[in-house]
Amino acid sequence: MSCTILYLLLLLLFSCACMSEVQQEEKAVQTERTERLNVEQKSAVLTPGECQQHFFTAIISELTELKSTVNSLKNKLEDNEKQLKNTEEQLEQLRRNNYKVAFAATLGNIGDLGPFNTDITLVYKKVFVNEGGAYNPTTGIFTAPVKGVYFFSVSARYRSNRLMDLSLSKNGQPMVYVINHPLGDRYESTANSFSLTLEKGDHVYVRLRHNTWVFNNEADLTSFAGHLLFFL
């Protein structure tokens, strides 16, 4: 009986020792697994963080460049809108006949005019039409009310025993001439015409050269006329 009890006690102690050893091994394995998992988790958190930082940096750079492009396009669009608005306003003014431009005038029944010892601007006082009021019958000067292409014509009557020399001038610069040299003692007529691109405010007029002369009577053959061809 005593031997049996002793045997049972030894068996119990051995079983307890084995269980303790197994538990220690399982605890060691669990600890190793936990440490490996912690390392893997740390590694898994670190790498995406670095990638995320690079991603955000690239996004910010792209957004900055995109913002600059958008601002540039916005400025261009605003400029285009202003130009379009100006063009629409100008077209609306044209539509409302604000820039209907046409004039025709003659020297009137004055007989001979000249010669003078200096160039003079001819004043065509007998006005047939002055649509838009761009021609001034007091000064003989046409002032362009708007930028565009204009057509002008100059005709002259003269007695051919003297020189006749006229110039169609723009802002003090002769553009074309109407000239006839002495050919005898008779009345003759001549003319010239020309198209000019004018800026708003440009002046166009006819000059009689010094020591030359021109003639006009009730037939009104000495004239100055012009009109706007198209707006620019």
From TrEMBL:
GO terms for cellular component: extracellular region. It is found in: Secreted. Its main location: secreted. Residues 96-232 form the C1q domain. Keywords: Coiled coil, Secreted, Signal. Residues 22-97 form a coiled coil. The keyword Signal applies. Transmembrane segments: none annotated. It comes from the Eukaryota. Residues 1-20 form the signal peptide. This is C1q domain-containing protein. It comes from Culter alburnus.
